[in-house]
Amino acid sequence: MTPSPVAIAAYRRKYERELFERVIPFWLQYSLDRERGGYFNCLDRDGSLYDTTKHVWLQGRQAWLFAKLYRTVESKPEWLAAARLGVDFLQHFAIRPDRRAYFSLTEDGKPIQLQRKIFSECFYTMALAEFSRASDRPDLLAAARDELATLWDWAYDWSYVGRPVLAGQHPAQSLAVPMILLNLIEEIAPDDASEYAVEVEDCIRRILLHVNSDEQLVYETVAPDGSQIASPQGRLLNPGHAIEAGWFLQHWAQRLQREDLSADAIAIVRWSFARGWDDEYGGIFYFLDAEGYSPTPLEWSMKLWWVQCEALYAHLLNFSLTGDRDDWDAFERVDAYCFEHFSDPKFGEWFGYCDRQGNVTHRFKGGPYKGCFHVPRALLLCWRLLQALETPNTQSVA
Amino acid sequence: MTPSPVAIAAYRRKYERELFERVIPFWLQYSLDRERGGYFNCLDRDGSLYDTTKHVWLQGRQAWLFAKLYRTVESKPEWLAAARLGVDFLQHFAIRPDRRAYFSLTEDGKPIQLQRKIFSECFYTMALAEFSRASDRPDLLAAARDELATLWDWAYDWSYVGRPVLAGQHPAQSLAVPMILLNLIEEIAPDDASEYAVEVEDCIRRILLHVNSDEQLVYETVAPDGSQIASPQGRLLNPGHAIEAGWFLQHWAQRLQREDLSADAIAIVRWSFARGWDDEYGGIFYFLDAEGYSPTPLEWSMKLWWVQCEALYAHLLNFSLTGDRDDWDAFERVDAYCFEHFSDPKFGEWFGYCDRQGNVTHRFKGGPYKGCFHVPRALLLCWRLLQALETPNTQSVA
């Protein structure tokens, strides 16, 4: 039995309230540094500041989120101003002449850490792209496109960002790279991506290298030809990442009107959920080992907010395309877990980290890797999709 | 009431059996790579291999352990051969002409990873020093001394090992550095350290910078002048590290016959245990925040084997010096936790990781950071000390 229109409407209202009354207000109230620019990231349960460090991933993501709200929900000046606060800070302090972006900055913008990775640069670019449209600043879109071109050169050879190349390293590709690049192209070219046709196909091809249909598994790290690497790194499953990659792919499958890719994307989400869900305590694991060994990361069995956030939207998107009750049930299962464990009834926003049993382990709402991004993005995407499901004659939002 | 001689003898026998019948045999049986040299580190619960990567910290530490057993317990040829396997492998493959040592190698010695830290070099040096005595190879002691001289130059300026120096970084000193250097000098110069008198005093001075007697806290990271850094990094407590530093200091207090330092060392262990012990579930936490915020590392509330191992010996050492029942009780409390949660009755060796509640989270016995070191070192040190406590007219082993 498919969900009734009444049930869908109830979820739509729930997500609307959570997003606009309990999540966005938290960040607007506590994170904006109107004095020095940018956002405070490290916010305790009640929004109070426990560290003034500004993390560049989170600066970029929050600027993107507020620009997206302004452009696609309502032209509220305070949302545009919030986005501008981040973009200006990033442009002043995060990006360097060589196009590298720092990982973290002091509250007044002095660099603390530079990672030998490309993700700070990706989220910087994502912010520029969305803000360029929200603020009608084509120069920022041009800057985003230039940065993407550089990232494209660096993406599969991190010696460009300072990683030593050593003789014993197994050639490897991380799922994170093609999926974030594919998402970046979606953000840079939301309407006409014909100019990026080659890059889009390359990202899709590379993502699919991680998918083993026979085993119904998505490997986080594979050899460049897609073969498996015989090591804990090669056996590592990151179901949250795989699920996120699934809905990134689905958006392109819809844009390119490619049914085979759509079927792949649906399967990636379903397989990763089936494998990643903890039947004993609920929630999706952070990491697993494909052959059942203990994953070496200490936090493998924890339940992280972003993993569950990505699953919310991915299952709902599957349901919107398949009408399959199993996809709806999966959405409801993750929804129940999130609102029981992560949503904070007292101060708004969500907790980020639970142990395997579902106890909150970290009371803060913002930390070095948790900002204003996965929770509001998932709520926004689900809210939009629930709206479309309420009035089924509208276009898909994907 | 102090423990009876019968109780002490029972513990002595327990530690003797655990070390020689259940821990050392595990590593001798499963870890030696007689074909290519060095040790396999990544051993599953039953000793089977789940990854062939050889981790240099653990190569150095295991070589040190077997050389120590050979030299101080019994001249068993198999122990010397086991130590040689590691030292030869390290000398062939881990150390570079510029005195840097890799962090990890393939099974046949090709480099995989080079950290921008100095700890691989420290454990390499530790292995050379002990093996030089076990094998009567003064050239290796000379090499260890040369490496230590280089490490001394690098220790407080990691730009020498590739860390970028950035304008927003707060000048900071990690407790790990002076404590490992002090331990290295103990290993390099166990009898006459007069040549290292300046370095020993410098290490002691720097370690004590981390101790705040008013608060009865040991900070993991402080400014170079010992002042507190106002950030999560500056508030971080690592009680296992502090406890280990406590017994390192106590060994020097005994050597230098310095009562004030001995009192400091006793207090460091007691304070860190009082603060670090989890009254709800038992075991010592991995990390805490001095002001009660949630520590940002995801694994902060886990119970790690090495933390408890260091506490076993530190409390027993305190008791041997103070005769105080509280120190003995602390030893017994940690002993009960270890043998209930970590010691594996089926296959020998100890598990490494429990969640806060005390459930084993990782079934392996050896991993990227867990090798043949903390468990046998703690058992060996406790066994020796329990022997001395059984026959109180002998010299202290400290």
Fold topology:
The structure is a homodimer.
Chain A (H helix, E strand, L loop, with lengths): L4 H26 L11 E2 L5 E3 L2 E2 H17 L4 H18 L9 E2 L5 E3 L5 H16 L3 H17 L18 E2 L1 H13 L8 H13 L1 E2 L4 E2 L2 E2 L9 H4 E2 L1 H17 L3 H18 L11 E2 L13 E2 H18 L2 H17 L11 E2 L19 H17 L8
Antiparallel strand pairs in A: 1-2, 3-4, 4-5, 6-9, 7-8, 10-11, 12-13
Helix pairs in contact in A: 1-13, 2-3, 2-4, 3-4, 4-5, 4-6, 5-6, 6-7, 6-9, 9-10, 9-11, 10-11, 11-12, 11-13
Which key terms come to mind for this protein?
homodimer, 398 residues, Glycosyltransferase, three-stranded antiparallel β-sheet, two-stranded antiparallel sheet, 13 helices, globular
How many helices of chain A in DSSP terms?
A: 13
Under CATH at level 1, the class of the largest domain in chain A stands as Mainly Alpha
Number of strands of chain A: 13
- With strands numbered from the N-terminus, the spatial order across the biggest sheet of chain A is 3-4-5
Task: Summarize the model shown.
Two copies of one chain form a homodimer. Chain A is mainly alpha-helical. Chain A has helices spanning 5-30, 56-72, 77-94, 119-134, 138-154, 176-188, 197-209, 232-235, 239-255, 259-276, 305-322, 325-341, 374-390, and strands spanning 42-43, 49-51, 54-55, 104-105, 111-113, 173-174, 211-212, 217-218, 221-222, 236-237, 288-289, 303-304, 353-354.
Task: Give structural notes.
2 copies of one chain form a homodimer. Chain A has 2 domains: 31-154, Alpha/alpha barrel (Glycosyltransferase), CATH 1.50.10.20; 171-398, Glycosyltransferase (Alpha/alpha barrel). In chain A, α9 (239-255) runs antiparallel to α10 (259-276) and α9 (239-255) packs parallel to α11. Chain A is mainly α. The first copy, chain A, contains 13 helices and 13 strands. Chain A binds chain B through residues 42, 44, 50-53, 102, 104-106, 109-114, 164, 166-169, 231-232, 293-296, 298-302, 353, 355-357, 361-364, 367-368, and chain B through 42, 44, 50-53, 102, 104-106, 109-114, 164, 166-169, 231-232, 293-296, 298-302, 353, 355-357, 361-364, 367-368. Chains A, B: It holds the Pfam family GlcNAc_2-epim.
